[in-house]
Request: fold
Amino acid sequence: MIEEQEAPIQYALGEPARRTGLAGLSMRATVVLACGFGAFLLFQLMGLGRYAFTVVIPLTFAVTAIISIRVTGRSLAQYVQMMWQDYRRRSTGAHIYVSGGLSRVPGGRRRLPGLLARTETKVGFDSLGREFVAVLDRPRREATVILDIIFTGQTAMTQAERNAMTADWSRWLAQLSLSGDIEQIVVVVATRPGSGSLVANEVADIIADGAPEIARRVVLEAAAVISVARPEVLGHIAITVKYDSTSIKDDSFLNQLGTRIPGWASTLQWAGMMATPLSCDGLVSRIHSFYNPASEPDFERLMLDGVGHGLEWADAGPSVAETLAGCYKHDGVQSVTWEMREAPRSTFEDTLLQSLIVPHDRVVRKRVALCYRPFEAGVGASRVEAEHRDAMVAANSSKKITSATAEIRLEHTEAARRAQARGAQLGRFSLFVTATVGQDEDLLRVVHDVEQLGAGSSIRLRPMRYQQDVGFQITCGVGQVPWRKQSTSSVASTSS
Reply:
């Protein structure tokens, strides 16, 4: 009897959260128009009709256009602010970062720049006695714990097993959403060319002492051949937890994290990932290797010898870095970071990101960071209901034929509403990609290759212009994300 093969499950992403107001405009644009209309009536009652027509009306329409017109997912207000901030940074020379003993960095250290400059590390031990490191951001009272990941998803398995693995990953994310204190989860998958040290060490361990010389030479030569520029895949998950000021001040948050880490790590194995807490030495070496790829062989050699590198978090940054509009130069290499401009519109299978994540022949160094920001259970339910009511109003407000976009939006919000009632949790996803090449390599070729890989995954990517240094730090995956940072344009435009 031939068993029927189970068909792959088709998944779908919800549309970005948005609220519509008058004539399909955003709620912020509607508020601006209402305020302008109120000011216009006030000027008319005061006998200043000329100013109402020459000042209030043009100013109202100008502000509405600035916050409503969007180019590649961003409003004009956001673009103007980014260009202005980049101009101020360049005018003061702040786009160039130099560290070390002769620099202006306090203590002559090689601190991480930008968003990571104020972070510090704290070392603790979980309930199983394993060392873990927490990246602490004291001003925001956030602690990020790093789980080192070994992926097992490419092993041979049936479609039913893959579907169950995807469901377990969804349940793991939902578990973190229900805790209420998780700010974000960042999953980083990095590929790099191997140095051959790990393969050589493995071969040296399996060769018996009494093996014939010819057999020994054959094994060593085979290991040398297969280890040349062989790509390696690294992965880690950064979980950021919010704490109160008392827990941060007396470091009691380390004990709380120590009791939760074993549960986080053990349940990930059902999602195809073997997770262990990353030590402080492991975290520092990984982040420093992102900034200075030439140091990777040295770190591998020390790890194989069982010797610590002695590098602290305060010295994990680059020696020199320069932020340009389209790339980020650091320690003899250059990197380009993209952000997800548009998620897949149609349904997709569980292998959607495979072409973007797996090693590539022409893009040997790249990182893919998937950010998940959960809503609390109560907040998520209220948001879903509000968006569903808004979609119903938008679909039924016109006497003409309802547009296809309004109908699709109503279907998405209805599906989210039903899923929320069945116990699903609401969250927001974002994706970032960083590719690193040498100073002499063709950057345009790499940009084309990565964007084509994104298109193969039904994801539209756009370079993070004027924010390449921030994008690079986001894909490092140590708890710093661009949202919730102070920004004037965030008041005047909705997030994408």
User: Anything to note?
Assistant: Residues 1-68 form one domain. The first helix runs from residue 27 to 45. The longest strand covers residues 182-193. The CA atoms of residues 272 and 465 lie 35 Å apart.
